[in-house]
Structures are given as C-alpha cells and as structure tokens.
Specification:
single chain, alpha+beta, tt1808, chain A, 6-stranded mixed beta sheet, 3-stranded antiparallel beta sheet, 14 strands, 17% helix, globular
C-alpha cells in the first residue's frame, strides 16, 4: 500500500476528490480515497483472488433478492472525499447505480495482503465503522481465517466471530450464510 503525495494538484487546491480518480492510470493497481488522501495498492495475488471470488460465490448463492453481492473492483462512495473498493461487498439492491454504491454497504469484506493488512485492520475498519457499515469481515488468506466485526448499539465495531481452517462461521448479518475459511481456498487448500 502506498499513500500518494498530491503531485498533480498543488497544496492550495485541497484534498483529492472521487472525480480526480477518473484520471488515474489503468495500471492494475487499486486506487482508493480516504478523506481526500489517495491510497494505492498493488494487484492482489492468487490466494487473495481465489478467496475473494469463492466468497463471492458463497454469498451470492445465499443472497436474498433484496440484496446484491459485488466483487472488486467496484466503488463505494461517501461524499466526494471517500471511495473504497472492498474485495467483496453486499448492498441493498435498490441502492446500487450502474457505476457505484453511493451509500454504505451492509457488508464489506477485505482479504488481507502483506501490503494492506495493517491498513485493512485499522484505517479501513475505522472508515467503515464511521460510515455505519453494519458488518465488516476480514479474511487472512494464509491461515485461512475469518474475523467478523459488527456494529453495536453505539455504532462501534465489536468482534462477534472468528473461524479458522475447517471451522465454520454461521453468519446472520446481512443474511444467513455458512462460511468455512479453508473451503474458500479451493484447490489451493
């Protein structure tokens, strides 16, 4: 992960906006914006992608019609200074546009990578919490393991579950679904 200095825009022009992201090169990297600061991450590896795609399939198979499951890259916007691209997200069907999700998802999932783990477990978690994303899942592809956070009554994330290897997690939010971390590795497991 790289936090980019604003070379294209002089200091007096203010923070970047989501409109500035349209001009970023198509380099295979992921561009996200948190409070006007550009975050650039490298293309994900094989384990990361395998877990993301397989999780998408599990969630999509269990998804009721009022929700929609989308895999990265797909933009979640909040105002003009935040654009995130979770590895997998679930939103209310009625909230999506053709281009983005302009409201917080009901579930955001990040698959950890060596270059993004600290960012995903701290910065992005704090932003998702601030935006009111009801459930945030983090998957460690090495173990593999799933950590589940959900908002409490005060709007703060609490860890409500963890599953590793063959241990299943029976999710209730945003809808009932059974996740077994090792199964998300497919042939890599």
């Amino acid at each position: 992960m790289t936090v980019m200095a604003d070379i294209e825009h002089p200091a007096d022009s203010g923070p970047l906006t989501v409109h500035d992201l349209d001009g970023m090169p198509d380099s295979g990297r992921r561009y996200e914006l948190i409070d006007g600061v550009l975050i650039v991450t490298p293309a994900p590896g094989l384990r990361h992608q395998t877990i993301g795609y397989r999780l998408y399939g599990v969630l999509d198979s269990a998804c009721p019609p009022e929700f929609y499951v989308v895999g990265a890259p797909f933009a979640v916007h909040h105002g003009d200074k935040i654009e995130l691209q979770p590895d997998v997200l679930v939103g209310r069907d009625e909230d999506f546009t053709e281009k983005d999700l302009p409201v917080p998802p009901v579930l955001a999932v990040e698959v950890l990578s060596p270059s993004t783990a600290v960012h995903d477990l701290n910065t992005k978690k704090a932003v998702y919490e601030r935006l009111g994303v009801a459930a945030y899942w983090v998957i460690d592809p090495v173990e593999p393991a799933l950590i589940v956070f959900e908002l409490d009554e005060d709007g703060h994330y609490q860890q409500v579950g963890k599953a590793a290897g063959d241990e299943p997690f029976e999710a209730e939010r945003p809808f009932p679904v059974r996740i077994v971390p090792k199964e998300l590795l497919g042939r890599l497991g």
